[in-house]
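Lab notebook page, bench 4
Experiment: in silico fold of construct C2
Operator: M.H.
Input chain length: 167 residues
Purpose: comparison with the prior construct
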Amino acid sequence: NNSVWGGIHNETLQGEDLVSVWAVVPVKPFHLGKSRLRKVLSDEQRASLNHRLFLHTLETLCQVNEIDRVLVVSHDAEVSTIARQRGVLFVQEWDGYNLNRALAQATQTAVQSGCDRLLIMPADIPLFSVYEIKELIEKSVDPPVVVISPDRRLEGTNALCVSPPHV
């Protein structure tokens, strides 16, 4: 499979109980993202790329009917403004950018608001579709479960769906 998802190969499950599915999008300040591209892109170009990728992520997640809420977590003011303009929830990150702390904070917020299943979606994945997100969510219906969508080289994680959220 050549998709950036690395392939998810389980059968589609039917008759799922109604649960609250939230998507969490942790976001670095745009000028800090895609740092491995520093040799080929200027800081300004990387910031622009990260901005566009973030918009793509929000637009795609908001098209997935199975997702009840999208929650962005960041300490960046520009990210906050964009999230609020797009009508998604925003959580101000406590102490600068730290992915694990940001995810813990977002998970706590989601659980306190009734979230049963959590999709963690980085803001900088260039190629993913509504269909792939739906497929990922469908695979996480039998808790406790963690569904990992690896990158095509199996070196990183493109998305993660967990049920219950603290798994």
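Observations: The radius of gyration is 15 Å. Residues 43-61 form the longest helix (19 residues).
Next step: discuss at group meeting.
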